[in-house]
Every structure is written in C-alpha cells, then in structure tokens.
Amino acid sequence: MEIQPTLINAARTGDTAYLQSLLTEGVDVNINDEKGYTPLIIACYNNRLEAARLLITAGADVNAADIGGNTALMGVCFKGYPEIARLLIESGANLNLQHGNGGTALMFATMFGRNELVRLMLDYGADRNITEFRGLTALDLAIQQGNKQAVELLDTQT
C-alpha cells in the first residue's frame, strides 16, 4: 500500500478513523502529493473540520503550501469555511502569507465574497495593506469585484 495517496484520500473524505490509524502507524502527517497538497490542505479544502483538527493535533504544518504557494487558510477563504479558518488561525496559521502571485487569504475571502471570513481575518489581525503582484490590496480587489460589504469592512475596521 502506498501511504501518500491513502492518507490524502482519507483527508479528502474526512475518514478520521482511518486517518488516526495511519497516524498511529507513524506516517508523515506533512507528506505531499505531486501538486504539493498536504493532507491538511486537502482536508480543509474539502470542509473536513474533524479531519483537519486531527491532523493539526498530530503535528500538521498549518502554514504548508502547495507548489503555487497556496495554504490551507487560503483554500478555506476561497471556499468559505469560517470554522476551519478559525481552527487554522488559532493553531498558528500565518494570516499574511502570500502565494505565487502575492495573494493572501484575506484577498481570497474578499474576491470570492466570503465576507464572514473577511471580518474574521481582520478581527485576527490580517494585514489589509499587503499588495499582490499588480500592486492591489484587498480593498482594491473588493472595489474591483463590487463587493460592497468587504469594501466597508476593509475601509472602516482598524
């Protein structure tokens, strides 16, 4: 049995019992696939809160990134999973990491209308002044997307 696809698949489906058995056998919780996805990135992207919690408890790197520089926090801000975002942040995720084009988790939340996550990221201290590769901030992206609620949040919160 090849461990990496098995562990990634268990994270994808949220099979915590199988994840636990693999972790008990001592598999590397931070193993990644050909795209750089770790089990934690996959669990988070697929809204598997309990699997994410188990992986973090087992030592998963909350700031690990895929080959494009995308982290689990960026993925949940794109998809819109505030519970998992809170878990990642409270487990030490860096709110201000930038992927290959300079985007941040806050920018993902802004661009995709995940305004509950915009608020959450700001409440936890995400830097609203970071610029991506074109020089745009999260506020600029909110304006560009016509995301009025995010514009209000980014323009008024300090």
UniProtKB/TrEMBL annotation:
Pfam families: Ank_2 (PF12796), Ank_4 (PF13637). Coiled coil: none annotated. Keywords: ANK repeat, Repeat. SMART domains: ANK. ANK repeats lie at residues 35-67, 68-100, 101-133. It comes from the Bacteria. This is Uncharacterized protein. It comes from Pedobacter hartonius.
